[in-house]
Amino acid sequence: MPNPLRPAALAFAAALALTGCGADVTSQADGRTGESGADRHYPVTVENCGEEKTYDKAPQRVVTNDTGITEIMFALGLEDHMAGYVMPDDKGDRTSVPWKDGYEKTKWLSKERINKELVLDARADLVFAGWNYGFNEGEGFTPAELERVGIDSYLLSESCRNGQGKARGVMPPLEALYTDLRNLGRIFDVEDRADTLITSFRQEVAEARAKAAEGDDRLRVFLYDDGKDKPLTSGAYAGPHDIITKAGGDHIMKDLKDSWTTVGWETVVDRDPEVIVINNYGDTGADEKRRFLKSYKPLAGVSAIRNDRIVVLDYVDLVESPRNPAAISSLAEDLREFAR
């Protein structure tokens, strides 16, 4: 399996060194107090999934749901503003990222689903989650329900609903990441930190794109998340779209105006991907998914299967997270190898 951090870890670590780590970043507000001692940074207003939200002060007891969302907070050095995080233990290695100390400093509240009782017990003042990243009407856990009990919410921008039923996606995936970094930078008064991260990430992506194939030289790529009767895959508004296209691939499901969604196997066969990227997580691991793909008879004639061009990336590389730029660099290297 390719190492999603191999080209970017040093660059990101350098960015961390420039800006400092952990709670020290939150002291930026100290230089903006007037004679009365009032913090002149607040109130601040940001737009989140089409809604303007105003903060009179930085939240102090944030509960996050899922790996990518939690690591956005860690990358911004906001552990001291967190009551804890909720995530299973099967969604990626947490020991080799530049912000790994965040996991040691912050309480792991649950490996099960996030719910209202859990965040109330944690005395949360804000829940950072998203539609299908914790928030779900079917389970009664929504921003509206939390508001009723006095808890604020911030929605992951990748998960914003676009008004077409429950379809998600209102901006390109990397812009969703940068939008959340900028918004959280303002909410927590760590704008310099957010700007440094965004600059570092843009540079990493630009370097990968400079070496990537273009036009007709791009290999056709399909993202396989899971599913046997119908595959769960990525549309234009989930992380894999930008990861694939900026790495020099042609995302075969780019016409799907949604984030994570299902398609028919006949569509996959018809579009004949030359490379398949497996999303590695859950009870059905990458090896089992690979065996299924290679043994599934309808796929036997697909170029990626015939030529054994299968790449594995971890879940947290592919959902919105600070690991996205490194995943682009990693996949770009794999695509160049396949094209030789």
Automatic annotation (TrEMBL):
The keyword Signal applies. Keywords: Signal. It comes from the Bacteria. InterPro entries: ABC_Transporter_SBP, ABC_transptr_periplasmic_BD. The keyword Endoplasmic reticulum does not apply. Residues 1-23 form the signal peptide. Residues 61-340 form the Fe/B12 periplasmic-binding domain. Belongs to the bacterial solute-binding protein 8 family. This is Iron uptake ABC transporter iron compound-binding protein. It comes from Streptomyces griseus subsp. griseus (strain JCM 4626 / CBS 651.72 / NBRC 13350 / KCC S-0626 / ISP 5235).
